[in-house]
Amino acid sequence: SSRVLWTLAVTQFRTLSKILQNYVFMTESRRLYPKPLFTDYDPVNKERVTQTQFRSVLDVLGLRPSDAEFELLTRRFGDERGDINYQDFCDVLEKKKPVTA
User: Fold this and answer.
1) How far is CA 32 from CA 15, 86, 100, in A?
2) pTM for the complete prediction?
C-alpha cells in the first residue's frame, strides 16, 4: 500500500494523516479495539475485508468518515482487488506502524 501513497497529492496525504491521527485519539480515548470487529468478517484469517465491511466496522466504532475521507482510507489500506488490509489499518491505530508504512 505504500506505492499508493505516491499517487496521493500532498494535501490528500495531510488530510489522511489528520484523519488517522484523529482515529488514533478516538480509539485510545474510548478504549476501542477494532481488530475483533474485523476478524468477525474474516473467518479464514486473510487480514482483508471488503470496503462495505470496512465501512461497517468504522461506523460501529463511531469513526464515520465522509465519502472523501473513506476514499483516502481505501486508497491507503486497499489492495489491488479493492479489499482492505485491516491488519495494516489496526497497526496504524495501535501506533505499530506510521501512516506512511
Assistant:
1) 22, 15, 23
2) 0.85
**Would you state the cell numbers that stand for residue 18, as one nine-digit string?**
489528520
Q: pLDDT value at position 10?
A: 79
Torsion angle defined by CA atoms of residues 57, 74, 85 and 92, in that order, rounded to the nearest 10 degrees = -80
Could you tell me which of 7, 87, 27, 56 has the C-alpha nearest to residue 96? Answer: 87
Q: How far is CA 57 from CA 7, 10, 13, 62, 73, in A?
A: 26, 28, 23, 9, 13
| Cβ contacts of 51 within 8 Å, gap of 6 or more | 74, 78, 82, 83, 84
